[in-house]
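Two entries, shown back to back:
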Amino acid sequence: MDSDIKEKYLLAGKIGKDAREYAQSLIEPGALFYDIAEKTEQFIRDNGAMPSFPVNLSINNEAAHYTPYEGDKKKFKTGDLVKIDLGAMVDGYMSDTAITVEVGNTGKYSDLIESTSEALNAAIKVLRPLINIYRIGEEIENIITSYGFNPIKNLGGHGINRYDLHSEIFIPNYDDGNDETIKTEKVIAIEPFASTGIGMIHNGPLGNIYIIDAPKVKNQDEIIYKNFKTIPFAERWLAKLMPDDQAYIKKMISAREVSGFPVLKEHNKSMIAQTEHTIMILSDEIIVTTR
């Protein structure tokens, strides 16, 4: 990997790690989702990067894809299980990292959170160039099930390329039998999800996150491409750039030029935890950029 590109990935990882820890420090009963997302994204910008995607603040049976909308008054409550999922981007080179926090620290879901953290560490420990992908999933599954929980089978890790957060590689959270190998000079994210439910998520309502979905939108005059290029963007980001942004988004979705991300959910009584790191797989070393 080119040394300049490597340094940009490393910087994106450090800023992502620091932003994750900053966001975690803000979580408390009564805090507004909006304030935490806005402050954390500004933290990323103030440290010399841009958000890789809107800060996700998904709670309880939600696995991912909720970010507050402009003017959102939603507050955290004691006992909420919050997945803080975020990333930093330096010249298009990105990090992606997540942690789960229990609001009020009641300790009720400590084992669930620990199962994902330990599963991620186990996956990183076996990681090496040319490892079979199923082996990573096997490590994750073994740890999570040993705690008495289920890995979420229709979510997993992914490759990361420049301006492309979810590239060609899919890394399962269980042994899916995929004997493809992880090549060198790759950047990936591994993100174990554990559930007290059956371990399968479904699409809920849209979570206020969108992305360009048609090549014809990709021109310098289009406001969303000019400002966000090919990365996911938040409704509240667009609200700061133009009036009546929600009508604009609806029009772009109807034209199939923009897609919305649905909130990913388990059944109502389940609880979900997640931990995630970004990892560089080089020919001579494995680097966890967000640790």
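entry 2 starts here
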Amino acid sequence: MKQKSIGYLEIIIAVSIWAISSGVIVRWIDQGAEIIYGVGAMAGFVFVLIWLVSKKQTKKISESYSCWKELVLIGLFIGLNNGLFFMAMKTTTIANAILTHYFEPILLVLIFAPLILKQKIKRKHIFASSIGFAGLLVVLGSQLNSAALNFGVLLGLMSAVFFAWYTVIESKLATTTKIDPIVEVLYKNGVPALMFAPFVISKFASGGIGPDDFCKLVFFGVLVLGISFVLLFRGLAKVSSQNASVIFYGEPIGAIILAWMIWGEQLSLGVIAGGALILAAGCLAVRDK
């Protein structure tokens, strides 16, 4: 098998893991969002650290010290992003949570890229944003007076803000330094692990995490925040990020379908139509000529 084909396969497997995580695993673990993400980030951090040690690449960690402030900031924002996203998935439907979360590309090209990267807003960005906003209105408008339309939707949108924020800082860092992406993953897990450590310690101290839940949490962390990121890292070394970005949209589609199949979440015509507009807008917003 050619290297490029292997790269696509690795990225597809990583995205499939994310879809299973969003659509199934987060609901499967009977713990709060802060515990799921906190323990998961700890397990992911340990897994990536072991991976670096096994590959004899720990020297790359010391090479990252020159821009530790930016890496910590990325870790902080991804912690807020995922923390809010997991809370949204525990509060509203998977479809509502993930579609509002994937409003990130619109916020990225319309607000954060112009402000931080000084990039100009193009006509295609305005067009994509209009489609995305229309899709969001369709999704939310179809659920007026519905129990599904609750605080979780706002949490999903807030997660999208921090998603776009850390992405644009990460993009700026990538153009000015040569930080190894797998070392960056270490920060992406390490900082959130510290952020949510008080909640995790308190829960353990009160006996609120049994052996069964602990195994599930470690499984989630190693698989989703460890293995999937290593696969993504390996895949992006063989495939351009531009081509890979289209595959990333398999996560929301897969998660929504899995939530419908396994948890019996209802898919209204408004959610399907509005979701299609949001995802199409996202693809258009990040697409090159």
